[in-house]
Design a protein that fits this description.
homodimer, alpha+beta, 39% strand, eight-stranded antiparallel sheet, 379 residues
Chain lengths: 379, 379
Amino acid sequence: MSVAVNVADLRAAVRAVVAGIERRNDIQILGCVQVKSDADGIAVTANDMDNKITTRAPAQTGGALDVAVPGSRLARVLAALDTETITLTAKGKDLEFASGDATGILYGLPVDDVPVMSASFPASRTLSMPAAGLRAVLANTLIAVSTEKTRYYLNGIYLHGRFMASGALALSGVATDGHKLSQQDTTLPEGAHGAFHPSVLGCILPRKSAGLLLRLIGPSPVGDIEVSVDQVRAKARFRLADGTELISKFIDGVYPDYYRVIPREFTGNAKIGRRELLSALRFVTSVCHGNSSTVLMRFDGTRLGVMTKNEEGGHAYTAIPTVASKPIEIGVNAKHLCVLLAVMDAEVVVVRYSDASGPILLQGDGNDTLRQVIMPVRI
Amino acid sequence: MSVAVNVADLRAAVRAVVAGIERRNDIQILGCVQVKSDADGIAVTANDMDNKITTRAPAQTGGALDVAVPGSRLARVLAALDTETITLTAKGKDLEFASGDATGILYGLPVDDVPVMSASFPASRTLSMPAAGLRAVLANTLIAVSTEKTRYYLNGIYLHGRFMASGALALSGVATDGHKLSQQDTTLPEGAHGAFHPSVLGCILPRKSAGLLLRLIGPSPVGDIEVSVDQVRAKARFRLADGTELISKFIDGVYPDYYRVIPREFTGNAKIGRRELLSALRFVTSVCHGNSSTVLMRFDGTRLGVMTKNEEGGHAYTAIPTVASKPIEIGVNAKHLCVLLAVMDAEVVVVRYSDASGPILLQGDGNDTLRQVIMPVRI
């Protein structure tokens, strides 16, 4: 029996899951998408053993379809069609299709070869939260995730519950690579505590999974997202309002006690325009040779001087207005600092420091949900 | 003495020449741009031994400046500035600059190290022609240039003069890689014959030079371009209306007698919608595995059937309306055919053929300035 689907719907569903597939995978079945019909329409699933993405397309007629075909090739076929409807029919393990004058077959693999990833989650560990809040937690911390393989437990975002000063429960994300740290909180809706209560251990969401989830959520999400966490089997499920679903395995490890590296006391602080600081850093590093990007920041009361320290290719200096409580000279890696500033949603940055060797805290003026720490560079 | 220049003007001038520099060049001086002031303003020059690009920016004050500094770094500095004016000063071989609060130095190399490329051309070999015509010749043939190193004389566009059927003199460009050939003519203005008279040997403009020139000319040029050819020293100069100039060395070789591979007589012909044919080829090859893209085209009077021949990944079939004078089955490489069709500026393609093993001629209906040949694939 055949299933008729709108080409644009199916194209969008296939594109969203194919983005999560490794392009060159030696294991053929991991490059496949499973296309399966059910009572509600068609489900398209990709699975890389660590992440399973499912998207849905409404089907105009029912029908029994369950095949696994190469994902990028199915996406190419759908991209090449300018017709309205496509009819899909399973021929054994292959997928036969017809759309206007265009017909064809994509050879598939046995669906039994598709890796199984259990999709059952305890109801007590499920909550619903605004997708925009989760997006901020992921996007504002992903930039600080380590790519160093030896400390594998830093290769993800540590998601955990914590109480805010107001007493409200928040979902907090933290990531660090040892040079910089970024922590974003988002208040959870009242009653939504099952998955991320402070008494429950947090989980480390891998860098790749966080990226996939951000792509599925999109840049300006509306509505809620359902989050289920299974600490025992070390995986989470994220279910979007449109039925799209991501199940991801956690990194199996213990996240370090990041709280100790965020200092509480400072002897100096300064306020700087975020865009002005970004421009100054980009200008000064533009003369640098190769990958070096160490700059010296000199706070002297009313001006922040920014200048090169590595003078292989040339040197550069500029200054921007600031209000600093204490003069100081600090060396920083401009690339790390720019990455942090880029995700900060504020006009003015508050910089807190004590001396030239201690950690520096960055926060948006009037925004206490994002905390960033950068370690100075000895100069 | 210092020279003051508009930042946006200098940024555009530096960007245009830096695009022609090899990014990773072991010879440092070839990664540099020469910045030199003269009576009319500032000239920015890059030189990779085979091509020399010069762009100009008006200077607000005169001044003696002549330095060679790393091109990509100067481009980065200018990209990072949001100020109006930059002041440039030579400090020995280094370039000092100041713009608002921003100041700096870029270390340079001795200008004497910049390779010299003679810029003198015989006036008798100089002509002025519409930039749009030259653009068509380059863009519509560059896609067929061979990248195979052994037949190095095919690694460029053969530019030469030839008389059209009307008796008018045209500049003709030809390129081929053995699988496909593309030839574009453009009528030269009356009296403009010095550089490309049929009695003078043509020249082979290297693939890279043609790409650089196309980039300088831009997608929709207006006005004329001055072309000078020096067959003896095997180089040409192209001078745009805005003063931008490219001097390129030719490939030192003899272009094969391409005229013999363009057949004159055919026993069959067909007319096909260009977009429909492109869509059909893209659809059919979308199921193909890897790089294979051989398709079978079956002309049967009123329909052109397009289908896969390599069935590793699946198979596909579609059909489009056509009017063919003689039924035939021909195998073609769909990638080559798509590349040719993509540059054809016509709604309807006229296809001329004799048998399944001879060359196929493609022309836009009503356009006799572009001729394309594709060799069939044995199936």
